[in-house]
# Entry
Amino acid sequence: MFKALDDNCEDIGGDAGKAAALSHAQVVAEHAVAAPPLADKDEAEHAAEPHPGPDVRPAGLVRRFEAWCARADLAPDLGSDIGSRKWLRGLATLLGLSAVAIAMWPDFSAVEAATGTPVNSRERDEFRSQSIAPLALGADSGRHMGASPLVHPLAHVPERPSIQLVSTLGQGDSFGRMLERAGVGGSDISRITELVGNAVPVSDITSGTQFDITLGKRPAANAPRALDSMDFRARFDLDLSIERGADGALSLVRHPITVDATPLRIRGTVGSSLYRSARNAGAPVAAIQSYLRAVDKYINLEDGIGASDEYDMIVAYKRSAKGEHEVGDLLYAGLERDGKSRLQLLRWGKDGQMFAASSIGQPRSVPIGQPVAGRITSTYGMRRHPILGYVRMHAGIDFGAAYGSPIYAVADGRVTYAGRHGGHGNYVRIQHSGGLGTGYGHMSRIAVANGAHVRAGQVIGYVGSTGLSTGPHLHFEAYRNGHTINPAGISIIARPQIDGKERDAFKAQLRALLGVEPGAALAPIAQPESEHAEAEREIDRLAPRKVG
# Structure
């Protein structure tokens, strides 16, 4: 509190001597309002004039702008009063600020950095050899760190006493070139070729055969290394080894492999699909295809085989004691219905043709097979021609098939015409026995020559759309003594092609194959007595046995 007396003024309110108690805020306000004393009249007049200094007007403008913003409420809550003037004013503020922010978006331009020192591959390997990278990457750089004073240089580096490598005989490669690439000397190559040739023809060694080769020391400086040993699979049933004896001479060692040649016999019910049934039984794809082609010459595959019929196929099969196996050709194809045999085909002769067991004694009529894998699109008889537009005789059957599909001869015969033939386009005609002939039209390409002899099932051309044709298909015709007949259901007279001398051997081979039990080829291979005797050693009893 302050006590104030007014000595120069009159007594106020009659109590001149009475003190007035003022607060600190009142005192400060009183001093702030009180004008400072002026020296003279000019200074007083100057103080009375308005002062346009920068500290007064901008502050006032800011206060007035702030007051306007408070009244206008430019940033209201956009979550309430949606759609009102106040809400639209806030939305305008948001969009304006967003536009300003986007306009001031910085530019991501490239910044030039310091230029790196160019490093070539040799210097890069040097850097890596002195870092931890070689340890992490298996020391793949191949560089060595600088030698320390403890390292003494060698006058020469000793060679490895032996080198073991694997060399493969490539496609079109020769046995000698393969050994030369492996580093075998010329004199050893000649001797090895001679030794191997005494066991198997060198030209019969199949491509892809791998040779385990061990090379020893060099007999002289800059000379090729001497061959110590070489092992490889010469045949399915034979391993060969070339070894160098104590006297320095090379010798051949044979290692026969136990092989079981029991044919693989597979039987089963046709069901909904003969192919799927045979595949589920484990038959190889090539064997199934050979079976279908052989049976198709005697029985129509579409409607001649029932779901309850049983198929029987036997294929050549070899397996070795090392676990490998080879699947050969189809040896026997059979079909049964109600326990009775409908068809028995046996591979016979040099050409490997399939002969029916019932046709070796006397001629018989055999229905022809389908000349192409497709469906019948037009039958034999009168019809409106799709291009000419009028009704005329259609002297054949049309089979719709994909462009380029192979066309097969339905029976043995001789090609009497092969070339362009009017509306038939590319056309082939074959003369068979018994005055029967067949024709094949609209081919894209002909695969036989005029006068050639063809076998049943041989490819004679490919499906096309030449001549008067609206799309790829085969026009198949049949002739009897020069006149067209309906190809559907015709048969070929199959004459016996096995004379009396071969007939007994044919029947013996058939009985031997039919005596094979289904799945007998998958039984464990019986080891020779010599191998059983060797296995009785004490050390072999302790060794683990491999099953299967």
Summary: The chain has 13 helices and 25 strands. The first helix runs from residue 24 to 33.
